[in-house]
Amino acid sequence: MKRLGFTLLAMLAVSGAWAHGHSGPIDDSMPDAQKIRFCERVRDHALQAFYNRERGQKMRLFDEDGSDGARITNHIIKRIYEEPQISSPKKAETFGRATCNEMMSSSTASE
Predict the structure, then answer these.
(1) Which of 34, 22, 21 is nearest to 101 (CA)?
(2) pLDDT tens track for 17-43
């Protein structure tokens, strides 16, 4: 009986650590804090674009204002609509995050 109680307690403690894959709180003193937050938002837009595509809705793009934000987000949304290989929400999130990180790194390297 004690072994069962200990096992349940251990499983409960571990499940909190494995709850989900979201990053923890981001300290504003980090040099890349804005980039991390931006790519999290882009990931959310990628997921929404995937759901819109699956429902047959038309592509919704942001107005281009010369900023990296609209350019990167629109690029990701267009690719999600074009690529049938992005076939699950997880793939859309992964694609959005990876593409954002890659494009943000190349845009900051050119400055």
Answers:
(1) 34
(2) 444 455 555 555 556 778 888 889 999
